């Protein structure tokens, strides 16, 4: 009635995970296979949006995005946690072996993709957002430490996360081909360096959160 569109932002975790040596990536045709309470509720929300589109004509689109990094990310998340650990004199923490793979995208690229879908996406469609940035957690950890002038192996291995998914990987071909979108932050190290600089300059934002986050992780052996 008011010409307003709804866009539902979801996660690639609704597809479950992939084996480390599996050459496939998630596409819009990949069956849902959520493996955690978080991803199960996100999958349910996706289904509700599709039902609203079909049953009530809601003008909605859906996107499933890979792992974000960049400014303003909560310090409980992997990349900002390691950065702020170094900045506060703590040793960085790596879950398990660090071989788990995530498909990283800068938050600004995620934002631009969502905006493109809102402007030009087909109603009822799902679009996968990714920057083809697969990296294992160990490599990301070592890159962060190197960029912060630390020994790349100066971190602690801690208890792995329960049900830790092995690998996420998104194929963004549909978004690129149909809507002409592409990421601008394609140099991961450059993006990390800018992210480190942001956290270094904005302790007033994340500092009040840090103690409570680390206390929670300590109770979990992480």
Task: Tell me about this structure.
The chain has about 220 residues and is of the alpha/beta class. The protein has one domain (about 5-220): 3-Layer(aba) Sandwich (Rossmann fold), CATH 3.40.50. It has 7 helices and 8 strands, in the order E-H-E-E-H-E-E-H-E-E-H-E-H-H-H. It has a 3-stranded parallel sheet with strand order 1-2-6, sandwiched between helices. Strands 3-5-7 form a 3-stranded mixed sheet. The chain is globular, with a radius of gyration of 18 Å. The N and C termini lie far apart (about 50 Å). The mean pLDDT is about 95.
Report the mean per-residue pLDDT as an integer: 97
Helix content: 40-55%
Unreliable residue stretches = none
Q: Secondary-structure element sequence? A: EHEEHEEHEEHEHHH
CATH architecture: 3-Layer(aba) Sandwich
Number of strands: 8
Shape: globular
CATH class membership: Alpha Beta
Number of helices: 7
Class from secondary-structure proportions: alpha/beta
Name given to the CATH homologous superfamily: NAD(P)-binding Rossmann-like Domain
């Amino acid at each position: 009635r008011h010409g307003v569109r709804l866009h539902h932002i979801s996660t690639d975790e609704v597809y479950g995970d992939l084996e480390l040596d599996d050459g496939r990536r998630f596409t819009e045709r990949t069956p849902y296979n959520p493996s955690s309470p978080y991803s199960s509720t996100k999958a349910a929300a996706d289904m509700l949006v599709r039902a609203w589109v079909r049953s009530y004509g809601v003008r909605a689109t859906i996107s499933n995005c890979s792992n974000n990094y960049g400014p303003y990310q909560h310090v409980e998340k992997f990349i900002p946690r390691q950065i702020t650990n170094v900045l506060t004199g703590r040793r960085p923490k790596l879950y398990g072996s660090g071989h788990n793979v995530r498909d990283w995208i800068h938050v600004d690229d995620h934002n631009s993709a969502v905006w493109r879908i809102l402007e030009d996406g087909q109603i009822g469609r799902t679009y996968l957002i990714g920057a083809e940035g697969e990296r294992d957690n160990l490599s990301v950890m070592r890159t962060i430490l190197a960029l912060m002038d630390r020994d790349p192996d100066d971190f602690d291995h801690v208890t792995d996360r329960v049900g830790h998914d092995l690998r996420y990987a998104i194929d963004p071909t549909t978004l690129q081909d149909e809507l002409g979108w592409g990421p601008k932050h394609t140099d991961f190290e450059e993006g990390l360096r800018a992210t480190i600089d942001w956290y270094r300059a904005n302790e007033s934002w994340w500092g009040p959160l840090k103690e409570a986050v680390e206390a929670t992780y300590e109770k979990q052996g992480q």
